[in-house]
Amino acid sequence: MRKSEIGSSIDWVFPTLRRPVFFWNIASSITVAAVGIFAKIFIRWFNKPKIHNVHYLHRALQRPSHIPLLTVSNHHSCFDDPGLWASLDWSTFCSRRKMRWTLAAHDICFTKTFHSYFFMLGKCIPIIRGRGVYQEAVNFVIQDIMPQGEWLHIFPEGKVNMTKEELRFKWGIGRIIYESPVIPIIVPMWHIGMDQILHNEPPYYLRTNKRVTFNFGNPIDLRQAVAKLREANVKPKEARKKITDLIQKELYALKTETEELHAKFTSS
């Protein structure tokens, strides 16, 4: 495939992700481990992280193999992923199976040949912002990621939120949860300070000696809510909105808690 074709279309990505060959899995394992280890070393050794309640995520990572995991968080910096996973243990980075999939903006991560392959090897799925919930990336998650009991991370704000205002979450997360053959374990997380490590304005380089707070919330159990929506046979649009609103409420409650924790951390 020519470079111009890769830059203008992502249709070729999904067959590649659906049917990885043996050497692809090896290259992907190396990519995931290398990026994860770098992020852990940089956050843990060159900055000052404070991590709260990470046991919620560690416990979820020990789930039965048929149950998917969905983590959701705010998005304040382009270094959020992989920086957030500095909270994981070393063994998780070395397991491609255990590590997360994530949705990545196609117009940022999939514009050049090298970038496209790098992010694909890093378990990133190209999402086209503005195309809605019925696009191939969301279909891929529902049809291929959730049924295999894998881990998906989503930034439901849909972009790097540089103003840090409370944005309405994108309804794609509602569709994923509602249509998933098995309702995932949903672990919310909020972080503060990542945009001080990598600024959203030039010059773009990683800073050191910054204080950053990670806070993981109690898993959100939506099984009963989803069951009621299905029994009531509500319209898909309404179901997506109700589920997304529940996620948004829980995540913004975690935001308030994390702001208090970060204020204590920075004043100490």
From TrEMBL:
<dbReference type="GO" id="GO:0007007">
    <property type="term" value="P:inner mitochondrial membrane organization"/>
</dbReference>
<keyword id="KW-0999">Mitochondrion inner membrane</keyword>
<feature type="domain" description="Phospholipid/glycerol acyltransferase">
    <location>
        <begin position="69"/>
        <end position="194"/>
    </location>
</feature>
<dbReference type="InterPro" id="IPR002123">
    <property type="entry name" value="Plipid/glycerol_acylTrfase"/>
</dbReference>
<keyword id="KW-1000">Mitochondrion outer membrane</keyword>
<dbReference type="GO" id="GO:0005741">
    <property type="term" value="C:mitochondrial outer membrane"/>
</dbReference>
<feature type="transmembrane region" description="Helical">
    <location>
        <begin position="22"/>
        <end position="43"/>
    </location>
</feature>
<keyword id="KW-0812">Transmembrane</keyword>
<keyword id="KW-0443">Lipid metabolism</keyword>
<dbReference type="GO" id="GO:0035965">
    <property type="term" value="P:cardiolipin acyl-chain remodeling"/>
</dbReference>
<dbReference type="GO" id="GO:0047184">
    <property type="term" value="F:1-acylglycerophosphocholine O-acyltransferase activity"/>
</dbReference>
<dbReference type="InterPro" id="IPR000872">
    <property type="entry name" value="Tafazzin"/>
</dbReference>
<keyword id="KW-0472">Membrane</keyword>
<dbReference type="Pfam" id="PF01553">
    <property type="entry name" value="Acyltransferase"/>
</dbReference>
<protein>
    <recommendedName>
        <fullName>Tafazzin family protein</fullName>
    </recommendedName>
</protein>
<dbReference type="GO" id="GO:0005743">
    <property type="term" value="C:mitochondrial inner membrane"/>
</dbReference>
<comment type="similarity">
    <text>Belongs to the taffazin family.</text>
</comment>
<keyword id="KW-0496">Mitochondrion</keyword>
<keyword id="KW-0012">Acyltransferase</keyword>
<keyword id="KW-1133">Transmembrane helix</keyword>
<keyword id="KW-0808">Transferase</keyword>
